[in-house]
């Protein structure tokens, strides 16, 4: 047997790649298009909750993207109290494989990949579902994925106003300051949900609630807005879906089941179902179904996170790393 080597990219290697906003969005959208065209296999994510008192769990995501000739498995921990230890809430590892033989190809630090690809899916959703003239962004939550939500959305829309809110003042103020510096424009930290959300063109809800609580009120959503709720625990009212002309998800197979998710109660009560669902985002990205059709549509986009987005972005990172001589090769067998 010939020697088998694994490409390894740690957090420092991925930082050295300096992936551009455009590269991140393009890689993830290619994966979504493949999904829309029926060229992927997505197994519903599974969870491991070691002990409820630890206030966290592991997500295991599995998938195959045929145009990329790659299968992958990502394991990511999600622990809401990690900030108390000076740690990010999420740590992840992405494993890529040859889909024909099962041969391992690569191991990547997936912590920032998770953040980047989540932000990219939010941005791609807005690209197809938000009003083109959207100028006011409201973002609830300041965890790792939040930064890339705002950064990649602003890359596409160049907002006039960005408002952010999170429960802890130090968190929201620091988040706003970092974004202001990196985006080169003012980002305002606000002290409550209503002032953040009311009147915004795009509303992203990425809160970190210990249990479901309807903090985002339906009456605050203006006509024609795009709402993107994806917190682990629901922060929206049941009535939110009642005002929507279109409801879009990243993958119905993942959204219709499982313990967690911002619209779990809406699925269980039938408000979001195969009948009321407009499309999966991949179908829209592939041109098979319509996105936004007029400025008056109020639209909801719920994404739970797809393995194929991790795989697509990881594969793009590997290609750039190989071209630039970044990373390490590990002897496997």
UniProtKB/TrEMBL annotation:
A Pfam family that this protein carries is OCD_Mu_crystall
Which family does the entry's similarity section mention? Answer: Belongs to the ornithine cyclodeaminase/mu-crystallin family.
* UniProt xrefs under SUPFAM superfamilies: NAD(P)-binding Rossmann-fold domains (SSF51735)
Q: Specify the protein name.
A: Ornithine cyclodeaminase
* Record keywords, A-Z: Lyase
Q: Transmembrane residues, as ranges?
A: none
At the top level of its lineage, which domain of life is listed?
Bacteria
Q: Does the keyword Lyase apply?
A: yes
Q: GO terms for molecular function, please? A: ornithine cyclodeaminase activity
Q: Which GO terms describe its cellular component?
A: cytoplasm
Q: Which residues form a coiled coil?
A: none
Tell me the classification of the organism that encodes this protein: Bacteria, Pseudomonadati, Pseudomonadota, Alphaproteobacteria, Hyphomicrobiales
Q: What is the E.C. number?
A: 4.3.1.12
Q: Which InterPro entries match?
A: NAD(P)-bd_dom_sf (IPR036291), ODC_Mu_crystall (IPR003462), ODC_N (IPR023401)
